[in-house]
Amino acid sequence: MTVHSAQIGIGIRVRGVLFAALALLLSLAVGCGSTPYPHVPESQRNVDVDYDYVLGPGDTVSIFVWGNEELSSSGTVRPDGKLTTRLVEDLQASGKTSTQLARDIESAYSEYVRQPVVSVIVSGFSGVPDQTVRVLGEATNPKRVPYKKHMTLLDLMIAVGGLTPYADGNGSVLVRMVEGKQMTYALRLDDLVRDGDITADLALMPGDILIIAESWF
C-alpha cells in the first residue's frame, strides 16, 4: 500500500470517529452529572504506548546536509503533506519519521552530491490525526493536541486550559479505538480538575477523543 493510499484510509477512519464523536457530543449536551457509559477498565488506564512520531502537515523541520552547509535549510510540511528543499521539490514528508525523510533526501540528493549525509530535526509539532488527541466541548481552549509519550488526562487538561464554568466534567466521555472497535468510556473530570482526585487520572493513547459535556444546571 502506498503512503498516499494509507493516509486516505487513515483519514476515512479518523473522520468516521470524529463524526461519531460529534454526534455523541450533541447527545451529552443535554445531560448532567453522569453518562450511561462504563468507566475506563484497568487494562486501558495505564497503557504504555510504544510509537515513533511521524511527520504531519504543519510540522516544522530543519534539514542539515553535513559538509554541504549551503544545502541545509528549514521548512514546514505543506497541507498536502509535501516538503520542498534546496534541490528537490515535492518530497513526500507526511506519514514518515524524521529518519525516513532523511534517507529519502539523501537518495534524492545523491544525484547532485557525492554520498550525502542528511539529518532531519523536527522543531514544531502538529502530527497526523491518528497521533493526536482531540478535545471537544466545554474546555477553555478545545483543540487538537499532538500526543506525547506517557501523556495523561491531567496533562491534556492543562494543555487545553481546564474546564469552562459551564462544563459537566463528570458527564464527559473518552472515545477510544480498542482493537479496531470504537469504545466510549465515562470520565471524572470534575473530580480530577476541580477536586484534585488523582485516581480519576489515566494514561492517554494516540487518536483519543475527549468530549466535555455542558451542564445546564
Please, could you describe this protein's structure?
- The protein is of the alpha+beta class and 217 residues long.
- It folds into 2 domains: 135 residues, Roll (Outer membrane lipoprotein wza fold like), CATH 3.10.560; 65 residues, wza like fold (2-Layer Sandwich), CATH 3.30.1950.10.
- The chain is 25% helix and 25% strand.
- It has 5 helices and 10 strands, in the order ααββββαβββαββαβ.
- The strands form 3 sheets. Strands 7-6-10-8-9 form a 5-stranded mixed sheet. A 3-stranded antiparallel sheet has the order 2-1-5, covered by helices on one side. Strands 3-4 form a two-stranded antiparallel sheet.
- It is elongated and about 65 Å long.
- It starts with a helix and ends with a strand.
- The radius of gyration over CA amounts to 20 Å
Helix content: 25-40%
In terms of per-residue confidence, which ranges show pLDDT below 50 for 5 or more consecutive residues? Answer: 3-10
For the largest sheet, list the strands in their spatial order: 7-6-10-8-9
Biggest sheet record = 5 strands, mixed
What is the count of DSSP helices, taking H or I runs of 4+ residues?
5
- Encode the helix/strand succession as letters: HHEEEEHEEEHEEHE
What distance lies between the first and last C-alpha atoms, to the nearest angstrom? Answer: 51 Å
CATH class of the largest domain: Alpha Beta
Write out key terms for the chains shown.
single chain; about 220 residues; alpha+beta; Outer membrane lipoprotein wza fold like; five-stranded mixed beta sheet; three-stranded antiparallel beta sheet; disordered N terminus
